[in-house]
Write the structure tokens for this entry.
Amino acid sequence: MLRKLAVVTALVSVLSSVFLAPQDARAEANTLRVAKQFGVAYMQFMVMEDQKMIEKHAKAAGLGDITVEFNQFRSSDVMNDALISGSVDFVSLGIPGIITIYSKTKGTPIEVKASTGLNVSPLMLMVRDASIKSLKDFKDGQKIALPAVKVSMQAIMLQMAAAKEFGDAKFGALDHLTVSMAHPDATAAMLGGQSEIVANFSSAPFQYRQMKNPNIRRILTSTDLFTEGLSFNVLATTAKFRRDNPKLYGAFHAALKEATDFINKDKKRAAEIYISITKDRTPVADLLEILADPAIAYTTKVGGIGPFVSHMTKTGQLKTPPADWKDMFFPEALAGAGG
């Protein structure tokens, strides 16, 4: 009887080691899916992809070989849908994007928060109609292209600029002129022939490419609205992913730091990698000229969040605004944060 019990115990032990141990060892995800948008603001992702930095840090963390997928999206609203549906793990959002998704998911099992900053970069409203010298000159039928109407960072900035120009009650005075368009398509429309698109609220490198055309002018820059360094993007994920994948979460952020340091140490090599990954036809010399703009910085620090929360709350665009903008960030994201 005792011998039978010993055999059964041994068999249970063997089965446990076969079926349970690998599951415990691979409790974390073996694929990491990262969402990005268009432009040099996401250069860290290109460097991480080219140098396989996430894979390296994941292996060092004991996760073995993992698969990393970088997926491109037009704007924050589309990425937010993908994150909530579980199609991606990390998203790169403008400030309105993180405010919106945090407010929608707060207190739920898939609550979304930002885990780090990504960059600081000016956004510019470019026009190609000589009659438009200020926001007051836009007429019906003259369309303003931006990544996503009413919800993108550029769309909210346009509202903030309109409130400053026309008064708080008319913050949406130009909303009816805006159309959703990816940056490459908007740039093609601006540089092409006749089009209803007469303006584009853009980002780097597209706005700088447009500026080389003598018929295109800048009439507004984000620095006109903000006095401090403004986070163009933050990276966000769900609290569930962070909880269930602590090693992979840490590996991603270690890789991001390495990529950020890589760019700041060698912008020429980073620009070459960007062109190689994106197939962008911009000459390396032109990219380096853009990256020399002191208003552009690759940094994981965050800033400029408060004014967006204030505007979106005041205009009724947030049903459940955060009591404090810092509530939208995981603690590790707030080291050295601005306002």
Remarks:
- The first strand starts at residue 31 and ends at 36.
- The chain is about 45% helix and 15% strand.
- The longest helix spans residues 246-265.
- Residues 1-26 have pLDDT under 50 and may be disordered.
